[in-house]
From TrEMBL:
Species of origin: Streptomyces pratensis (strain ATCC 33331 / IAF-45CD)
Higher taxonomy: Bacteria, Bacillati, Actinomycetota, Actinomycetes, Kitasatosporales
Gene Ontology molecular function: ATP binding; ATP hydrolysis activity
Family that this chain belongs to: Belongs to the ABC transporter superfamily.
Biological process, per Gene Ontology: glycine betaine transport; response to osmotic stress
Protein name: Glycine betaine/L-proline ABC transporter, ATPase subunit
Ranges where the record places region Disordered: 341-372
Keywords assigned by UniProt, alphabetized: ATP-binding, CBS domain, Nucleotide-binding, Transport
SMART domains for the chain: AAA
Basic and acidic residues: bias regions: 363-372
PANTHER family referenced in this protein's UniProt entry, alphabetically: GLYCINE BETAINE/PROLINE BETAINE TRANSPORT SYSTEM ATP-BINDING PROTEIN PROV, GLYCINE BETAINE_PROLINE BETAINE TRANSPORT SYSTEM ATP-BINDING PROTEIN PROV
Keyword Nucleotidyltransferase in record: no
One GO CC term, this protein: membrane
Classification via InterPro entries: AAA+_ATPase (IPR003593), ABC_osmolyte_uptake_ATP-bind (IPR051921), ABC_transporter-like_ATP-bd (IPR003439), ABC_transporter-like_CS (IPR017871), Gly-betaine_transp_ATP-bd (IPR005892), P-loop_NTPase (IPR027417)
Residues of the ABC transporter domain: 4-263
Length: 372
């Protein structure tokens, strides 16, 4: 069963929202609704997130991604559609039951840290557990463990204003991890950080994910960040999801010119993997012969950027091995160069629509942390 499922979600702000949904379902463009004082923030969004997966929602400011995120934990009620969490329809829960789910099973990490300045680092990390009614000794132990996971051991007694921006964001991440929630929602969590610190936080998240296997929905406007973090990516524009797929799917097969414009500056060598460009081994050759000749062996998940060094010293094909060490494919130098030079295949589409801005909901950080 999917951990999280969104089914035909709509969110309309303004007058007669139900009528607006019917118009949108009938083909009316959202710009036509503005004359009636209505803003369609999210339009017919559907996707699934599997357990242990990082699902990234990417789009420009005003694309509807943050509004979509707030419907996933019930901060915003959908105008239409359903959100299923472990098979349970969150949109059908009473306010009390929804608060319980949000308090115990879903955690959120915000862009601007949302730390309490009058609480220590340890107290901030333990706040979600305090709201749950966890005894003090247990919540401090669990918070300390979460701080250690995020590289903040030794800073428990410090105050938030004594920490750098990156360290403050680590506290926010530790607070989410301390509750051991099944689902982690991250809303532009690294976008306020300097580039080097931002990449360090991405590394931290990927390392934690290897150990904890959390289910994560991550919101970003940065395609490189989306490509680096996402097991699957949804690209949003004007409230709609215009493409879903792996980073490789989006890079190699953009659904339209709008998506293609996003990926034009992406470093393909860091996204494409050996498994995506490998060829079948030559018939009749044993694994032993292929491995003996290959200048290096890699896995199917190895970025092709790591193949350049072996090819600088040898013209033989790099061997791609499976989990048992058997050769499942080879990457000749010619195939590597061809992959770097291939143009994305874009299907013909209508003229792109102009970008628009959608008013974002107010900051509800404390409400989410407290499970309100």
């Amino acid at each position: 069963m999917s951990r999280l499922q969104a089914e035909h979600l709509y969110k309309v702000f303004g007058r007669r929202p139900d009528q607006a949904v019917r118009k949108l379902e009938g083909g009316t463009h959202r710009d036509e609704l503005r004359a009636d004082g209505t803003t369609a923030a999210v339009i017919d969004a559907s996707f699934t997130v599997e357990p242990g997966q990082i699902f990234v929602v990417m789009g420009l400011s005003g694309s509807g991604k943050s509004t979509l995120l707030r419907m996933l934990n019930g901060l915003l009620e959908p105008t239409a559609g359903r959100v299923l969490f472990d098979g349970q329809d969150l949109t059908a829960l009473s306010p009390r039951d929804l608060r319980s789910v949000r308090s115990n099973k879903i955690s959120m990490v915000f862009q601007h840290f949302a730390l309490f300045p009058h609480r220590s680092v340890l107290e901030n990390a333990a706040y979600g557990l305090e709201v749950q009614g966890v005894p003090r000794a247990e919540r401090e132990a669990r918070a300390a463990e979460a701080l250690e996971l995020t590289g903040l051991a030794g800073w428990e007694k410090s105050w938030p204003d004594e920490l750098s921006g990156g360290m403050q964001q680590r506290v926010g991440l530790a607070r989410a991890l301390a509750t051991d929630a099944d689902l982690l929602l991250m809303d532009e969590s690294f976008s306020a950080l300097d580039p080097l610190i931002r990449r360090d936080m991405q590394d931290q998240l990927l390392e934690l994910q290897k150990r904890l296997k959390k289910t994560i929905v991550f919101i970003t406007h940065d395609l490189n960040e989306a490509m680096r973090l996402g097991d699957r990516i949804a690209v949003m524009r004007d409230g709609e999801i215009v493409q879903q797929g792996t980073a490789e799917d989006i890079l190699v097969r953009p659904s339209n010119d709008y998506v293609a414009s996003f990926i034009q500056d992406v470093d393909r060598s860091r996204v494409l993997t050996a498994g995506s460009i490998m060829e079948a081994p030559e018939t009749g050759r044993s694994d032993e012969d292929l491995l003996a000749e290959a200048p290096a062996t890699v896995t199917s998940e190895t970025p092709i950027a790591e193949l350049f060094t072996p090819f600088s010293t040898s013209g033989a094909a790099v061997a791609v091995t499976g989990e048992e060490g058997d050769v499942i494919g080879v990457v000749p130098r010619e195939r590597l160069l061809a992959a770097l030079g291939e143009e994305p295949q874009v299907e013909p589409q209508e003229d792109p629509r102009p970008d628009t801005q959608v008013p974002a909901p107010g900051d509800e950080a404390k409400k989410v942390i407290a499970g309100a």
